[in-house]
Structure formats: structure tokens, C-alpha cells
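re the bet — no i am not wrong, look at it urself. input seq straight from the record:
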Amino acid sequence: MGLRRLEEKSSKGKGEEKLYKPHVITADYIAEQGYDPEKRETYYIVYQKETEEITIEPSVKAEGKTYWPLLHQDLTTNQVFLPSKAEEYHSDTQLFKEEEDFLNHWHEERFKAERSIDVAYVAITHLFDVPLPEIPYRRRLATFGKGKSAAGQAMVVTSYCGMLLAGMDSEASIRWTFDFWRGTPFIDEADFAVSDIYSTIMKILNVGFSNLGGWYKSQDPNDPAKVRIQRVFGPKILATRQRWKDLALESRALTAMGYEALNQIPLFRHKQFLEQALRLRNKWLMWRFRNWYRFKELVEKKIEKPGLFEELYGEMPIRNRVKQILIPLGLIASEDLKRNLKTSGLSLEETLATLDEESQYELLLREELKEIANAVKVSEVNEVSHNIGGLKEGWRVDKGILKVPLREISEKFVDEPTSSKTYEGEVSKVGKQLAAILRDRIGVRVKVGTGNKRFVYIDRDLLGALKHANLANYANSQVAD
């Protein structure tokens, strides 16, 4: 079978058009492709929403079309992992514990908090296609021989439609695999060894976290006038030896460090590994059936709600990007797991700040702005006057805007001078950096005023936001002047 979008490829048998698709979801039923590895047979496992009845069907009909499961070499060679049936799991607690035990047996994780995130990530893969607007990636980061591959392999075989991307995969096959199976890939470091494949993988990672933009566009080699559009949105399990240079991509991964195992674990994954994984996939399929429609309603009701992160986790001093990647898991997390996710989020925030030098200045600037806000009364910043409580020398108020000299802030970022000339040069240099950060990162205007001096413009809304630690929401609402 050629590597093409097979759900669009049709064949005629007995006068009926066939369309191949591994997952079919309607308002009434969910049909998931099943695969029996012993008989090498494919079929649909169908769950009826109203009756909760589960049946095995050779094909399903939706919107006037008939869909068929595909017997592909990805299945027969253990490159894609599907369930064989829907199996009872008794309770969420018991299923999560079985997943944890499975992961612990095949990969040693020193920190229980990281393991709980692994389990939650496997769970969310079975619901991501409701769809969630965005979904984070799960990554192991370590040098050679620290268990990255073992962790990824153990997670992917129990995730939703797990996919192994081998190091020899071609660019075309990688894109097809993502688009057709639409599951959870494990991308090991071998996939970054070849330059053209590296480019493909990086593009997939950069667009594949978002449901809105999760499409890979490429030119059709047989017809330059045509553009192929392939779906790459979804969860991804990753293993890398180093951090990405792209800070935006770095911020989309929940990263756990890898370490050498202290205890004995199986060095090979063969028959027992695959059998245990299949039983767990069967239970996760039942869990998906029972939770998919309910989770879809929850997402549609809450995902666009302002303050959703605080509702799930409480107040945290982290940027909105980090909040975005924590929300999906927070929707299914227990209170214990939320505590672990909060720790992971704070760690990611610290990492991003370290990798991004400007973030250090940004954090300090936010604190400085908060001190300025706390020095004045917001209610009084509506006069054309200099006689306001807390107003320092050089500060101005005009038409509800507090104007603070940028130099006053810049001087706090410069060490004691070795000479007057050096000091003035450093203050000027830092002032330019701070002005850019205030404008581009925080959403605060800096303008040239009297005497060619630059002033930071802080209006009443910003003062209120600063006093209530809600600067991010203020900045997001501003339009460039």
C-alpha cells in the first residue's frame, strides 16, 4: 500500500466505495480500529453513546460514507499499537495504578512526581481529540544511556494509537504516519540525525501542539501547483539529548530529566512487554469510551473561560504559555497530581527564564512596576497635578497617566560605576533594553517627554493590574499605541 492519505483513497468492491480510516466519531458512536496480532485481523470496536453497547463491526457508516479499517504493515511490524478489544478496568484509580506499575517495571523513574505526570499524559492522549485547543509534549532529556528510550517506549505502547518513528523513516512516511493514524508518536533522538528529517520533525513539533494550526503543508512533487495538507496535531512523546534552541518550542514540553537506573530493570522489551501493553491499551480504550463525550462537554464549557488556570491550580507566578500547557492535564488531574504539575510548571518557568536572558530583566521589571504601583493611590491618578500621595520627585501625572522617568528604573539595573562615563553609558544601554522589554513583553509604553527624557507611561488600569498581580491579563488586552 503506497504512502498516501488512505482515508481519501478509495477502491471498489462489489459496487461499494471503500474509505480507509482508523477512527470514526459521530454524535452517536465512537468506532476505533482494533487489531488482533495473533490472527492479524482488523475491525472496528464500536461504542454506542446512548446504550453504552460495544460491538465488533467490519465497517461503519457516517455521513453517507462507509469506512473500513486498514491492515497495514505498521501494525504487523509493531510500529503502531492498537487495542484488540474494550476491556473492563473497574475504576479510574485502579487503571492509573496499573499504568504506573507497568511504567515502573519497564523504566526506572527516580521521582514519583514525574511518574504521576507520565501516567496522566498517557491518559490525556486517549481524550485529546475531543479536541483540545492545544496539548503539551512529554519529553525525557538526558545524555546517552540515561533511559530516555526506555521511558518513551514504555509510554507509547499504552498511549492512544501509539506510533514508533524509526530512525530510517523518510520525510514522506513520517508525514503520512502522523496524518493517517492521528495518534501518539514517540520520537527518539535518532529521528534528528538526518538533516532533512530533522527539518520535518522540527516543523511538526512547532505546529503540532495546536489544534487550530496543526497542519503540515508541503508541495506535491508530482504537481507543483498543488499543496498537500497533512494533520500533525496531537500529543507527542519525545527523547532528546539537549534542549531546543527555539524557546517557544522549549516552552511546549513537560520535561523530565533522565538518569541511569539504580535498580535492575528488563534490558529487553519483547513478548511479555507487548502482551502487558496490549491489555492496558484495551482498558484505556474502555476508559476512552466512557469519558470521551463527557470530557468533550467539559472542554467546550470551560476551555475558553477566563481564569480557568487559577480555578484548576490557584495563583502561580508563571507566564501564560506555561499555564496553557498545564491546563489540559489539569482537567483530568487529581489534587495530588495537580501539585506535581504545579512543581513541573514552576521548574519549566525557571528553565525558560534561565535560557532567555531578557526574562531575567522582565521578572525584575515586573517587581519594580509593582513597587511603583504600591507607592501611589490609584484613585488619585486622575488629576493634572503633582500633589498625589506617594508621588516621588520627577514623577508626573497627566490625564490619568502616571509618568515615571525610565532612568530612575534603569539605574537600579546598573552596578556601582568605575567612572562617570562608564556609568552613563551603562545606564543608557540598559535603558534601551528595558524600554524594549516594557513595550514588547509587558505591554507598557515608553515615550520621550520634556527635556528629551524617556518616561514609562502607567495608566490607571495598569496600576490596578499591578496591585492585584494581574499584569499578564492587562498586557494581553492592550493594543499598540
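see?? Confidence is low (pLDDT under 50) at residues 1-13, 471-481. told u. also Residues 443 and 480 are 8 Å apart (CA to CA). so pay up
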